[in-house]
Design brief:
Helices cover 72% and strands 0% of the residues. It has five helices and no strands. The relative contact order is 0.15.
Length: 97
């Protein structure tokens, strides 16, 4: 009986903390300054999402982790020079033909 109560309490605590951890971000409005100021974990998640969006838009279907790391470094470098622009605008300019 005690172990059941413990499991229920633990489950409730985990559900409560998980529901508070969710964050919504409008990816099209994130400025370069905001991107560069993100904590490492959030920046990594944002970078991965943007990479997926960019690759889908251009039809690129391969995974190249070295190219990914290079692209993230290039975007961060560009953002350092353009802090008021959105990351999405920079990527759209980079893919414009």
């Amino acid at each position: 009986m005690k172990s059941r109560a413990f499991c229920v309490a633990l489950g409730a605590a985990l559900l409560a903390s998980a529901s508070q951890a969710q964050v919504s971000i409008d990816m099209s409005r994130v400025t370069c300054a905001e991107y560069l100021a993100m904590p490492a974990v959030q920046s990594a998640t944002f970078s991965a999402w943007m990479s997926g969006w960019f690759n889908q838009k251009t039809g690129y279907v391969f995974v190249d982790l070295d190219a990914y790391a290079k692209n993230v470094a290039n975007v961060k470098s560009w953002c350092a020079s353009n802090p008021n622009d959105t990351v999405m605008a920079g990527l759209q300019r980079a893919t414009a033909r």
